[in-house]
Design brief:
Number of strands: 7
CATH class: Alpha Beta
CATH superfamily: 5'-nuclease
Number of helices: 7
Order of helices and strands: EHHEHEEHEHEHEH
CATH topology: Rossmann fold
Number of domains: 1
Shape: globular
Strand order of the largest sheet: 4-3-2-1-5-6-7
Strand content: 25-35%
């Protein structure tokens, strides 16, 4: 099972100047982060839904998000939506981490998979990681070598740190 924290993923990629995710080859990415002969039971991408508020900026953001959704669908990903809370000029994503944790618990308790590949550096997920591991699941942290989460490395069963060169190959 592959779980991607979209906001976390986007900003780590943006740090590397690799942020045009509507052109990202998620199929190649899945092959990069999974073991050979792995059967993937679920691929999920979690993100706060951008809402139109009549502004040019929101129109642009919604259009970009729709292109991302089309790209994710092309590679068989389900996108799971949280929401964005606007505070002044800043948006805060809500509901995404809880949904990731719930899906991890469902996978562990319903025995949906043996391995959960988690692309998120959010340490709020530590209790869900610990519980999934206590239920015998391998939880693999996939992070970025330029900004690894040492805490996530310690919480998870295994970890993989991606380099910019690995990720550049995902763009056509």
């Amino acid at each position: 099972m592959i779980l991607i924290d979209g906001n976390n993923f986007y900003f780590k990629m943006k740090d590397l100047s690799l942020y045009k995710l509507d052109c990202f080859d998620f199929g190649k990415f899945v092959k990069l982060i999974t073991k050979k002969n792995s059967k993937i039971v679920s691929k999920r991408y979690y993100i706060g839904r951008v809402r139109q508020d009549g502004s040019e900026k929101s129109d642009k953001l919604v259009a970009g998000q729709q292109r991302l959704f089309q790209n994710l669908k092309k590679y068989g990903f389900k996108y799971v939506l949280g929401y964005l809370l606007k505070a002044g000029d800043t948006y805060h994503e809500k509901g995404v981490d809880v949904q990731i944790a719930v899906d991890m618990m469902e996978a562990a308790y319903e025995d949906l998979c043996d391995r959960i590949i988690l692309i998120s550096s959010d340490t709020d997920l530590a209790p869900a990681i610990a519980k999934a591991r206590s239920k015998g699941k391998i939880v693999e942290y996939v992070g970025f070598s330029h900004k690894p989460s040492i805490a996530m490395v310690s919480f998870c069963s295994e970890s993989t740190l991606l380099k910019k060169e690995d990720l550049e190959e995902m763009f056509g």
